[in-house]
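quick one, 418 residues, struct below
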Amino acid sequence: MAEKETENKISLTEAQIKDLKGAFEKGSFSDYSEQLKGTLQSLENICLDVGITGEPGVGKSTFINAFRDLRAEDEGAAPTRGASANKEPTAYPHPKYASVILWDLPSIGAPDFHPREYLQQINAPCYDFFIILASQRFGLIHAKLAQYLLKLRKDFYFVRSKVDEDMELGRQECPSSFSEADALQEIREGCLRDLQASGVKSPKIFLISNLSFSKYDFPLLGETLWKDLDLQKSHSFLLATPNISHRLLEKKKSAIMQHLWLVCVVACGVHAEPIPEISIACDTELLVKTLQGYCVNFGLEESSLRKVAEHAELPFEQLRALVKAPLAAEVAPELVVELLVEAAGKAPKLPKQLVPIAAMGLSFAVVYNMLKAFVEEVAADAHRILLKVFMSHKPREESQANIPGALEDNGGKEMGPP
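---
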């Protein structure tokens, strides 16, 4: 019984409850909704510009493609092998989130390289943060660039790429005694030692494989960026981040949940129309777009699912069978009404401050719980797909040990198919 009440409870901050109560009591809910419509639209269009820099051959283009879930042969991918060095910053928008842009910056490391002139050339203030890539050692050139970025009050992160190549070489050289944990620690300590020797006091260093973001430190890099960015930009960053770990999926889910109330206010106020099946009014067209967006956020469109199946060398039908929610293209007004009717039958729990005006808040409560249930369902689907992909690549024992966050954020239980 307690679980059911928690499931239907609406979680709002005190400030949100106060604003809603005031709008309901004053009869100004439509005005309040119109006001928040602009806030919702601006949230969906937050720009995030990420500068990717490093010496030639460190894998900038591969990093950019991997973050955007593209392969070198895909349309819109950054050119990799045989590409001429770019002399100007080149923008690569995310395929799903056009306002999230990764910039392939001119390479550093030429004999006449000067950090101050370089940062002026690329117009450094325009970027939200920088990724400084190295495929072997970090040195004085990286440290000097970082020092000038500090003067500009720009965040930067040292990323050691191609770690998978180091691991493979180590296995070949010492097949019987090789330890991946020891090798990673050695690389990490070497990077730290080199940067500190060059004058960087507390460098943030992340070890990654450009070809497999789920390995090593990329999930940690994602979490760190999410914490460091301001609230709105961290929201955009999280949505654009590939589904590579269970912890990141949970953070993506939490970020979406934080804005449910905003969608509900707009859906129940600006263009709300009665739903004949139940005694509420809302904008079903907005809700269709919203649910489709949630599907996209968690990779539940047919094109994304087919790409995952292809990369994992799994039958598409096998992955599709794991998805309980509709795919993005399957979300239609009829489905939204069906989900609203289902939510209305579960007695949504309004915060006690809003109970006296429950009649006015009923539409809000029903829409809120419908959206909440849908987000929980698509997030669970994404977890199942992620676990299936990992399990398809490794023996069970090794796979379970290497899934980032697989046993976290879920009470210590395995996050997989029921």
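Strands lie at 48-54, 90-93, 100-104, 129-134, 155-160, 205-207, 273-275, 280-282.
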